[in-house]
Amino acid sequence: MQEIKQTLVNVIVLSLAVSRVASWFVTNTTPSGTTSAGTAACPSSKYRSIDSSCSSRQNPTFGKAGEPYARLLPPNYANGISSPPVMTNGSAYVSARTISFNVFAIDEVPDPNNTLLNIFFLQAIGNDLSLPAGSEDPIQCCADGQVIPNAPSRCYPLLIASNDPLYSWFNIRCLNYVRLLTKPSTQPVEQINSASSLLDLSFLYGSSVAQSNKLRTLSGGRLQAVRRNGVEWPIPDPAGCSWSNVCYLVADRRSYQYPMSATVHLLFLREHNRLANQLKLLNPSWSDEILFQEARRINIAQYQYIVYYEYLPRVLGQENMIKNRLIFEGTNFASDFNAFQNPSSTGEFGGVLVPFMQSQLPGSINFYVNDSVQSSQLSSWAGNLASLESSFASFFTGLTTQSTNLMDSSFSIEWKNFMYRGNAALGQDFLALDIQRMRDYGFARYNDYRSRCGLSRYATWEAYNATFKVACPKTIDRLRLYYPTVDDLDLLSVPRSKNR
């Protein structure tokens, strides 16, 4: 199990190491001028751009929003272009729902060393670095639980077996999944990242000038906010929304999927406006633009320090981070910026980070009312922000006191069956949808990532079994039902598997 976790950690470390070299200390202070052939000149500016373009003057599109994801390994598409991967014998992988239900246990084991704030801060980091283009497109591939005939070309519905222990009771044979948008005329296809790939609080400021301007007051350097009961909240979204019962105008709606995730966005929103107010008092002659950029600059610097020196050492291990040059010992200024290192987020980072978080989510969320603990199902909070403002302190107290679950192969029943169910009896299987997304990306097989991370490949099931000292063969037996050989194991099937 330890070696499985190490592979998962290594995938995240590799992705973060690539991103970090261009995340810190990015300024564009050199004069405007031409760059490499075929690219536009970067403007002269003291401040990082909103879309992260020109973080490298030699390569202005490195890390820029709207560019393709990087990859740790080449894709494994069946036809070499875009078809979902197949197994080594040429047959299709079984349904992602079948893998989710039969391989991954429903169980919760509390982790006394981590609180829920760890999970939702990790979600904020993931949102900052990755937003797959097309992931929110309102295309329907299923109707009344059945596959739509002649569905749109981007449809890749998650098929449900007729004997599924839960969905079959409601005659549900299809869960909606729409393939991600890709860069035109590329082979193999390359998925597009709508977020900037640098740690720059894009979930707060946006990833384009037009989006950022909608979020700004354009006066005093502040972000738009309304003050109620002595504290600031985002302004209402004039366009409304279908994903929540309360609609705020924000750069990334994923920040407000739950009241718990909204807390991280709110902290940085309020901090930006506090900084802008203080800077205006100290520098009354500064323009709105300078106040905004200086407040943003400080806010991002604080955020980056928290991520790399306070949060990630708890997740990846401080020694591991120093070894991989993600952080440095001592307090002296250090920078190893490399203008030729592409910091673009990897598809694997998004594909691994989300499940990394999900297995730790408990099925019920605690919040405090008059010093007493109350609890509600996780699914009841999805898209439910009606009580955010009246109960913000209650939610935040819960985030800083309630334990997460251990990072293992088990998930809460809420996450696997009931999310976003509305008034229906069943909702989405988010784990199955993550597996489906992994196939959409065409990720390489697990053994290939082991090699990429400097670990030995498994040649046989017996070798796999021996490595992890499985006391009883249940986990191996379940995997062997759906994967003919160890070489068929995909990226998300193994990092979570353990003996149960």
Automatic annotation (TrEMBL):
Signal peptide extent: 1-23
Q: Under the GO molecular function aspect, what terms does this record hold?
A: heme binding; peroxidase activity
PANTHER family referenced in this protein's UniProt entry, alphabetically:
OXIDASE/PEROXIDASE, PEROXIDASE
Keywords of the record, alphabetical order, are: Oxidoreductase, Peroxidase, Signal
The organism sits in which domain of life?
Answer: Eukaryota
Has the keyword Signal been applied to this entry? yes
Q: What is this protein called?
A: Uncharacterized protein
For biological process, the GO terms are: response to oxidative stress
